Amino acid sequence: MVENLEIFEVEQAGPNLVVTPLGSTLQFQYSNVQVEANKVLRLFDAPEIKNVIIDLSRVDYLDSIIIGSLIRLLQRARQTGGQAVFCNACENMQNILKCIKIGSLWPLFDTRDEAIAAVTPSE
């Protein structure tokens, strides 16, 4: 399943939801960001979804509104017993994550494959 929304691209890879922000809210209306973020959050209602991977490959900056939406996703994964990680952050995004201390709460991986491997239990 790949869902192309205006603000987030969402893919399901096994028990993992891969969420890719497509820009900062400067490009979008605030209400659209909230509506889309809530749609993505509702995907966690499916019992097969356990983990969330935030893929930052398409952005080099995120503002507080998008970051707030992502934090809600990361917290939902934890609340449902799953894991949450970031991947593919450019240097600027890495600095932003460090500045807001979010990087200490959720790990950052260099690639999507590494992130998926980290949250997917080995059989």
TrEMBL record:
Q: InterPro entries, per this entry? A: STAS_dom, STAS_dom_sf
Tell me which residues make up the STAS domain.
1-119
Database matches in CDD domains: STAS_anti-anti-sigma_factors
Q: One GO MF term, please?
A: anti-sigma factor antagonist activity
Q: Which Gene3D superfamilies match?
A: STAS domain (3.30.750.24)
Which PANTHER family does the UniProt entry name for this protein?
A: ANTI-SIGMA FACTOR ANTAGONIST TM_1081-RELATED, ANTI-SIGMA FACTOR ANTAGONIST TM_1081-RELATED-RELATED
- The molecule here is called Anti-sigma factor antagonist
